[in-house]
Amino acid sequence: MKGFEPTFMPSFLFDFQKAMTEYAIRKGRAALFEDCGLGKTLQYLVWAQNIVEQTNKPILILTPLAVSSQVVDEGKKFGIECEQSRDGKFSDKIVVTNYERLHYFNSNDFIGVVCDESSVLKNFDGTRKTAITYFMRKLSYRLLCTATAAPNDYIELGTSSEALGEMGYMDMLNFFFKNDQNNSSVNRHYGKQTQWRFKKHAETAFWQWVSSWARALRKPSDLGFDDGPFMLPALVESQHEIKNTRPHPGKLFVEEAHGLKEQREELRMTLQERCEKTAEIATHDRPVVIWCHLNDEGDMLEKLIPGAVQVAGKHTDEQKEDRLTDFSKGNIRALVTKPKIAGFGLNWQHCSHMTFFPSHSYEQYYQAVRRLWRFGQKNPVRVDIVTTPGMQSVLSNLQRKAEYADEMFTQLVKYMNDSIKIERKDHHKKQEEVPQWL
């Protein structure tokens, strides 16, 4: 189904937000790839309101855990009626729920769907991801919104296209790429060593194709608009290295960790020291987010940090949502959690301090930082990275992924602007600010 001319375009939208929203409404099925804090929530609410006015049928908005209440509050703020539903029952035309509760809803009740933080889909298991994709395929209007579309992964652009009904990701690969090893397996890391490479002269055509169903920007000037208030505060990072004093299993002396196995061993051997250092850093009277990856890390940090509350996999979805909402409202000072649980969609501009144990996932680091360091943050954001000597290769890997992500997003913005004939100066000669260790 094609889109239509907007019937509701409120004056409170910034000029670039209006341009992005108008595009999505006229397209009917589209993706908006925008950096954190640029107002994607408001844009998709206006998109949903237009669909409701045009069809008089409901729209379902899917969000990560604890984000749905933020969406409802945003709607109230700007006079767009919507309601949160946890059980599939609703009365308003714009309904907001979490991805985890999709099974309570019937797609026949809706004319369209919004996937907020759509990149989170790849973190779900196959069954849930398939259910979400199947639910969307029945709907006439679809909108995907995310800040990190494929930071180092073209596949995600293909799955986004497939969800919108444009082209399946395997069709995309076969059309634009060649397979070095002549098989159908998918390598998700598109660095120098890869199975899938652009076919000759296909790169320009690929980005033009993506630009036919998506719009992307990191700041308003990417679309030729004035950046105005959308300027980020300083990002102040510090690295704290914990020395490993225990030899790895089977070794007589302490040696640098090489490879994933030894890195994991080193993390286990330094768990208490890393947690104690983190607790020392996070013990103050201001809001702080303590990111971890291991259950043992989370349990120990919760005990060591006064007043800390953990959100972990052992908690029910309701418990997770309640605790994340409490932190968002300022009822919890120190939150201990994992990026894969709370790294998407939440707006925590009230907090300007976080600690982080690095991993090989650039997206996890990016999303964790962007919960705090986002447009609308008034204070410099402090990031304390607690690491070990054996994790230096991990930091190097993150640097490579950060550079690749910036290059890919720059390409998308460039070809997008070329396709819609936007004339602007080159705003990307200076790379996006990242921590010094990247």
Structural summary, described in words:
This protein is α/β, with parallel strands linked by helices and 438 residues long. It folds into 2 domains: 15-223, Rossmann fold (3-Layer(aba) Sandwich), CATH 3.40.50; 235-394, Rossmann fold, CATH 3.40.50. 38% of the residues lie in helices and 16% in strands. It has helices at 15-27, 40-55, 67-77, 126-137, 154-164, 169-176, 203-211, 259-269, 271-282, 295-304, 317-328, 339-342, 362-370, 392-419, and strands at residues 29-34, 59-63, 83-84, 94-98, 112-116, 141-146, 177-179, 196-198, 214-217, 235-241, 288-291, 308-311, 334-337, 353-356, 381-387. The strands form 3 sheets. Strands 3-4-2-5-6-1-9 form a 7-stranded parallel β-sheet, sandwiched between helices. Helix 11 links the parallel strand 12 (308-311) and strand 13. The longest helix has 28 residues, at 392-419. It is globular and about 65 Å long.
